[in-house]
Design a protein that fits this description.
7 helices; CBS-domain; globular; 3-stranded mixed β-sheet
Length: 138
């Protein structure tokens, strides 16, 4: 099995926490992604915003997309793994948190992101199936 460095995508678009929901949606469309790591003004990784967050937690909740910032929307810290983490550790971290993406960080620096699509490209079918059962069963 592979490690996180092998699994991750490195062309990661980040967005500042002070950006608005509508701007995040535009960036997602421009880069054809469903999630963006969110950074604070000092450059620290403070969360991940997904397309689902934009729809469910902002628009469907009646928040104005042009006035609601990502800082108002994100909750908690992103699930992160080290670049040398074995794929079983990556799957365990994702399964435990029931998330579909994890960031790969080294000394606080964002190196990449691992999504379900990355797992599908690199993992054996049985490992991927076990992950899917774990994340989607709860």
């Amino acid at each position: 099995m592979a490690d996180a460095r092998t699994l991750m995508s490195t062309d990661v678009q980040c967005i500042p926490a002070e950006e608005t929901v509508d701007r995040a949606a535009q960036v997602m469309r421009e880069h054809d992604v469903g999630a963006l790591p969110v950074k604070s003004a000092d450059g620290a990784l403070i969360g991940i915003v997904t397309d689902r967050d934009l729809v469910v937690r902002a628009i469907a909740a009646g928040k104005a997309p042009d006035r609601t910032t990502l800082a108002d929307l994100i909750e908690g810290t992103p699930v992160a793994v080290a670049p040398g983490a074995h794929s079983t550790e990556v799957l365990q971290a994702m399964g435990n948190a029931q998330v579909r993406r994890v960031v790969v960080v080294d000394d606080g620096d964002l190196l990449g992101i691992i999504s379900e699509a990355d797992l599908a490209r690199h993992l054996a079918d049985e490992d991927l199936a076990a992950f899917v059962r774990r994340v989607y069963q709860g």
